[in-house]
Amino acid sequence: MKSFNALVECLATEQGRAALAGIHRGIERETLRVTPGGELAGDAHPRELGSALTHSRITTDYSESLLEFITPVCSSVDSLLDSLTQTHAFSVQHLHGEQLWPVSMPCFVANEGDIPIARYGSSNTGRMKSLYRTGLTHRYGALMQIIAGVHYNFSVSSALWQQLHRFSGSSEPLGQFISEGYFSLIRNYRRMVWLLPYLFGASPTICQSFIQGRQTNLPFVSLGAGALYLPYATSLRMSDLGYTNQEQEKLSISYNSLDEYLAGIRRAIAMPSQKFARIGVKVDGEYRQLNANILQIENEFYAPIRAKRVTASGEKPSQALARAGVEYIEVRALDVNPFSPVGIDASQVYLLDLFLLYCLLQPSAPTDAAGELEMAANLRAVVLTGREPGLMLARNGQAISLQHWLGEIFTGMAALAPLLDNAPGQQGQPYQQALAQWQVCVDDPQQTLSGRMLQAILQPGMGHGQWVKNLAQEYSQYLRGYPLTPQQQADYEAEASASLARQAAIEAADSQSFDSFLSEYFNDPQS
Question: What b/e sequence results for 279-306 when a residue is b if at least 16 CB atoms lie within 10 Å of its CB, and e otherwise?
Fold first, then answer.
């Protein structure tokens, strides 16, 4: 494969710039519904928002209280964020005074048992989705499951793949080359994923109720009023306290090729867990989880990035990948940005594009066991102590300062930014502006999201809870007043109504028993 600099030079043509800029993106943003007092909402998913089972843009994640907003696939950053904002606005305008929690880590929860598991109706599909979440509750506890994040879906243009295929001189089919290219991106992303919590991590603090009854050796400092923080932490959401699964550490799923990845996922789905077996599957006639394997289903595999393809009806994610290869990747290492009313801003999106293209165009060697340990250690160091002066990481067994490595990555992204800004039809210099905005964080960790967040919270008379509640109120007022056009309002109302009708049709068409449905699902010979 050509070097990064050689590929940049090859793409520095009008055709190459157009191919680079042909990015398709989507966002999934999770957020808790809370009362004006900052407590978890305990009521059902509002009917005015439609069916969480079938709505195309508004659903729930683990809990009835944990909304998830999904954008369509967009080729422009402006249309992407406009769509996300419109969905936020419509939802807030139908929450009857409830607000959206503007940070990743949960609000005050007095009793973990009060967290309502998401319900999707009486169909077998809906019951399976709820049972999966019941299993998550038994396995990891409900508090971990209401941590919110932002997922960024990303794919490059077919024109770019064709050019890269030609530059490589490869004789393999284009589809196979594309899948290998996305896995090359994934490997580099995993080596450098620590950059995202360093820049965009926004969970250096937690409510003390989050660790109720849980043991931790982390040296927390009290913020007062029931809040804790680590002085140099960036993303406690991505620490061992957050959205992780230690049972999965034994899986050793490889990202060296699509075939190895799929083989690892299939092993994981079939691998029994002694720990989860003690929970029981069906006890006294009531299901507690889908099965007692390390993964109940593929979605339980926690990873900071996933290879994806849009699934056909009834198709599992791994079946879609096996059928037609990788279509896009899903970045899952983003905290909710508390400085944006929709959890992410345009400068982050532009920087994500640059970072992911940098990962794609860099040579990407296969990983081994030592490399996996190194990646995990680097990520852990940054989520817990990322803003510590002089922090050292490891690269290929050699010590390297975070600041130096970060500077190298920014230099690489700086070579790409002008190509994207000078693509045909591009207005302004948004990529170079975003790069300059975040470049200051290389030398000044206080300018990162976690640094800015702690500075705000540590102001005299403020505190963690009050700061977050103030933001929730501010964003609620903004979104309640956001001017949806009559057509936009009508479109959201129509989709809500249509989604309820689709759910009713699915329920009416069910003829199998739930036991038979689950047996058929897990005995699928293509699994």
Answer: eebeeeeebbbbbbbbbbbbebbeebbb
Q: What is the 3-state secondary structure (H, E, C) of 144-196?
A: HHCCCCEEEEEECCHHHHHHHHHHHCCCCCHHHHHHHHHHHHHHHHHHHCCHH
38-65, pLDDT tens digit by residue? 999 999 999 999 999 999 999 999 999 9
pLDDT, position 523: 86
Q: At 425, list the tokens.
A: 């039809």
| C-beta of residue 153 within 8 angstroms of C-beta of residue 230 | no
| Contact assessment for residue 375 and residue 186, using Cβ atoms and an 8 Å cutoff | no
Question: Would you list the DSSP string of 211-247?
Answer: GTT-------EEEETTEEE-TT-SBGGGSTTSS--GG
Q: How many CA atoms lie within 13 Å of 516's alpha carbon, on the beta-carbon side?
A: 5
CB-based contacts of 298: which residues, under 8 Å, 6+ apart? 265, 269, 316, 317, 318
Q: Which long-range contacts (CB under 8 A, 24 or more apart) does 283-288 make?
A: 287/131, 287/134, 288/134, 288/135, 288/138
105 CB contacts (<8 Å, ≥6 apart)? 147, 203, 205, 206, 207, 210, 236, 237, 242
C-alpha pair distances (Å), 464 with each of 77, 145, 242: 31, 21, 18
Inform me whether the pLDDT recorded for 126 exceeds 90.
Answer: yes
Question: Which residue from 45, 17, 19, 18 is spatially nearest to 33, judged by alpha carbons?
Answer: 45
**Residues 117, 126: Cα–Cα separation, whole Å:** 12
User: Could you read off the pLDDT of 278-311 as tens digits, one per residue?
Assistant: 999 999 999 999 999 999 999 999 899 999 999 9
CA neighbours closer than 13 Å in the CB half-sphere of residue 365? 6
pTM score, whole prediction: 0.97
The C-alpha angle with vertex 158 and arms to 155 and 162, in degrees rounded to 5, equals 125
For residue 216, what pLDDT is reported?
82
Instruction: Give 210's pLDDT tier (boundaries 50, 70, 90).
Output: confident
Element (H, E) at 370: helix 369-385
Distance between CA atoms of 429 and 464, rounded to whole angstroms?
A: 36
Burial per residue of 417-435, b for 16 or more beta-carbon CB atoms within 10 angstroms, e otherwise:
bbbbbbbeeeeeebbbebb
The CATH number of 4-522, from 3.40.640.10, 2.130.10.10, 3.30.590.20, 1.10.3720.10, is 3.30.590.20
How confident is the model at residue 252, as a pLDDT?
82
* C-alpha neighbours within 13 Å on the C-beta side of residue 448: 29
**pLDDT value at position 527?**
47
